[in-house]
Amino acid sequence: MESKQGRREKKNERASKLRRLGLRATPQRLAILAFLEGNRNHPSAEEIYQALKPRFPSLSLATVYSTLEILERAGEIQILTIDPERRRFDPDPTPHAHFYCRLCGRVFDLPPGEPVLEELPEEIEGFRVEKILLCVYGVCPGCRGRHKEGT
Amino acid sequence: MESKQGRREKKNERASKLRRLGLRATPQRLAILAFLEGNRNHPSAEEIYQALKPRFPSLSLATVYSTLEILERAGEIQILTIDPERRRFDPDPTPHAHFYCRLCGRVFDLPPGEPVLEELPEEIEGFRVEKILLCVYGVCPGCRGRHKEGT
DNA sequence: CTTTATGCAAATGCTTTGCACTTTT
DNA sequence: AAAAGTGCAAAGCATTTGCATAAAG
């Protein structure tokens, strides 16, 4: 289990990170950062909100949205448009491919280099490139096992 | 200008295409197909609806959505999730990269092979692949000219 | 004549907004 | 204090749904 001290240290790291970005280190933001850290589930805003509500009863969905947008602009997270129903959030801001399972709706990170996502060029034919998303759709291994249509 | 006969021929082609797919060739569907054909603007459902309304006053937005979904399932068009605000539709179903300009909101086709979108593998690490979208975000050449921030 | 598609209006659900209030710094 | 962030409720919109009517094959 994690030590009380370890937790305090991480909290301080998150706070400094926020201040470094010119943002105020509010409990809400620290909680969102902590929840996202190492989270590979690509949660939606609602999921983040629901997960944090028990510990932060005053938290509002609007704050979640606003924080996530700010974090994206600061380059700390990615906002994914892969899910047609809702925005999904990825704490890993480095470019990598994502997979959306049309059966369970889960979003997965794909191993780097699998569909090759070469480093983003500064520019493509006059278009200034700022971000690239590679979205793969289909059926995930788990769902392929449960429903046995095709391979 | 296009001959009356040429138009009739294309209409027949569209009708046969629909029937081949097991769909009924209704005026609404023919109109949507005709509007999409060769359209490089990646219109939204609303845009398609507005464009067709003058000639088909009875057309409804629900029909536009339903037709587009059917056409995607039939593999005739692509539904893009590149625009965070709304669904965009591409009459070209072959895999190619798209560019979304955050200033004007337009969606462009990128030349094939620019960000290389290799043919989609049947499967990646156990994930069954059915579709790949490569979405590039940034500023388009037109907007780079108008606002002269950065390069 | 059967089946499929359409149109309407209402409903749904995600995301944003305005604003008064609270917290950081 | 000043500036920035939060929470709430309402508003905004894109998309879907249910169902009665209409058109296609």
Any key phrases for this structure?
homodimer; 151 residues; alpha+beta; Arc Repressor Mutant, subunit A; Dna Ligase, domain 1; 2 domains; 4-stranded mixed sheet; two-stranded antiparallel ribbon; 5 helices; 6 strands; 19% strand; DNA-binding
Describe the protein in words.
- Chains A, B: Keywords: DNA-binding, Iron, Metal-binding, Repressor, Transcription, Transcription regulation, Zinc.
- Chains A, B: Its cofactor is Zn(2+); Mn(2+); Fe(2+).
- The structure is a homodimer of 151-residue chains.
- By secondary structure, chain A is an alpha+beta fold.
- The first copy, chain A, has 2 domains: 1-90, Orthogonal Bundle (Arc Repressor Mutant, subunit A), CATH 1.10.10; 95-150, Dna Ligase, domain 1.
- Chain A is 36% helix and 19% strand.
- Chain A is built from 5 helices and 6 strands, in the order ααααββββββα.
- The first copy, chain A, has helices at 4-20, 27-36, 45-52, 61-73, 141-146, and strands at residues 78-80, 88-90, 98-101, 107-109, 123-124, 127-139.
- In chain A, the strands form 2 sheets. Chain A has a 4-stranded mixed β-sheet. In chain A, strands 1-2 form a two-stranded antiparallel sheet.
- In chain A, strand 5 and strand 6 form a beta hairpin.
- In chain A, helix 1 (4-20) packs across helix 2 (27-36).
- The N and C termini of chain A lie far apart (41 Å).
- The relative contact order of chain A is 0.11.
- The interface between A and B is large, with 41 and 41 residues.
- Strand 6 (127-139) of chain A pairs antiparallel with strand 6 (127-139) of chain B, so a sheet runs across the interface.
- Chain A binds a DNA duplex (25 and 25 nucleotides) through residues 19, 23-29, 44-46, 58-63, 65-67, 85-87.
